[in-house]
């Protein structure tokens, strides 16, 4: 049972991460090709960890090589961190910082087939609002006492109550989004034969 719950928690986390990832087609309709302006293409993108770059190109005619900053500057793919020439390269951005891509075919990088993207850290998921009820508090009040000869004003406690907290019955308080994620996790759990 505990392993089933752990699996459901993992499914929920992956559903949330997948829902927040954005897929970008490099070069939009131009794809990964000679003559495209990838600097302009990347200039308005707000990439974050988990986002996906899709490079579309004619397989065998180009490559997608992820390289270091120095190799990007010199258009060298000889020490590529990763390389693909299939024609449909998908790269999931796993770390924050700058990522450098070039075409490793001779002359293509120097003719503009190079892309640098700046990837921001993934933003944390928003926290759910607290449903902890507030407790009443008492604060002493000091009423004015005209004619007091001792100079000491007697204190009368006053009770200040917080507005009543609306109690929800069980899972009825869950938001619609949480229901959707739970439904996906339940569907996945059923598909995996956990229930």
TrEMBL record:
InterPro entries: Cupredoxin (IPR008972), Phytocyanin-like (IPR039391), Phytocyanin_dom (IPR003245)
Keyword Glycoprotein tagged: yes
Signal peptide (UniProt feature, chain positions): 1-21
GO MF terms held by the record: electron transfer activity; metal ion binding
GO cellular component: plasma membrane
PROSITE patterns (alphabetical): PHYTOCYANIN
Domain Phytocyanin as annotated: residue spans: 22-121
Region annotation (Disordered) ranges: 124-160
Alphabetized UniProt keyword annotations: Glycoprotein, Metal-binding, Signal
One Pfam assignment: Cu_bind_like
Keyword Signal: yes
Low complexity: bias regions: 124-150
Protein name: Phytocyanin domain-containing protein
Protein's gene: LOC102717998
